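Summary: Need help interpreting a holo structure output

Steps to reproduce:
1. Submit the protein chain below together with the SMILES for magnesium ion.
2. Request a joint structure prediction with the ligand placed.
3. Inspect the structure token block that comes back.

Expected: a single structure record containing both the chain and the bound molecule.
Actual: see attached output.

Input attached:
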Amino acid sequence: MMTMELREKNILNDAFDSFAVVSNSLETRYKSLEDQVERLSLELSEKNKFMERTRRLVAMGEMGAKIAHEIRNPLASIGIFSSLLERELSEDGKNRELAGHISKGVKTLDNLLTNMLLFARSPQPSSVAIDIKSILEGTLLLLDPQKAEKVIIERDYVGETCIKGDSSLLGQAFFNLLINAVDAVGAEGTVTIKTCLHENGSTNMKVTIEDTGDGITQDHIDRIFDPFFTTKDHGTGLGLSIVESIIKAHGGHLEVESYHDDSGKLERPGTIFTVILPVDQTEAFDE
Ligand SMILES: Nc1ncnc2c1ncn2[C@@H]1O[C@H](COP(=O)(O)OP(=O)(O)OP(=O)(O)O)[C@@H](O)[C@H]1O
Ligand SMILES: [Mg+2]
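--- attached output ---
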């Protein structure tokens, strides 16, 4: 009888022990589930905030593109009238200079608007026969004469310069690269533009824009293609990201090589941007 009671007691004790173990493990799992739910709710609320911000940014981007588009037409008229005014005042040095400031401001604004519009919508290049040499020459005429006249521009166009592409988009890309080169050179120095055909499995046009400016520091070089990265007081930091997207849209690529000199030991600091463009971008995409 006694042994029977003892056995039942042991069974009951074992049952209590097992219950306690199971209950402990359930409690631990409940706690970890609770933590997980808390973490997921936090992640969800962060993601919701991020989505809301993204929605606002997209709306702002669309609004910016619309405003930029609307500003362009009146700006073009101001540009035409200011150059007429400059011509009209050709005898009146002081006032001609003032009218020149208007034209210069219009060009800067127009470039800013073009970059903004290109940033808002990815470039869709046409593919027609174009001459890289005349695009580069046309672009050089658009540079701010006050800045560009201090800089020596050297050209080295070797052989064929005709390819298939979009002249207005490539003009904008070269313009952004040339403005940067002229800005980097500052008071005095040289910007060298070279073109040549380059064989690498297929035929490419290689355009290099080289300047004798201060170069780009090691900690900046990885960021220069990021939209909005700028080291200039009045820069938007959109220039190079637009250049990159235009060149990529043509099936080409962009490279940078830069020597920055803090120690004054380098013989010649400066920067070289190399643009590689397939001679016929449609063939490059067909491959
Ligand atoms: N040729 C160059 N020499 C030295 N630094 C350069 C050169 N080109 C670009 N950079 C650096 O890269 C940064 C980004 O250039 P990017 O053209 O994108 O913008 P930005 O010139 O600053 O502004 P924006 O093009 O809107 O006027 C520049 O601020 C500058 O620091
Ligand atoms: Mg720039």
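--- end attachment ---

Reviewer comment: Residues 1-121 form one domain. Residues 84 and 189 are 32 Å apart (CA to CA).
Status: needs-info
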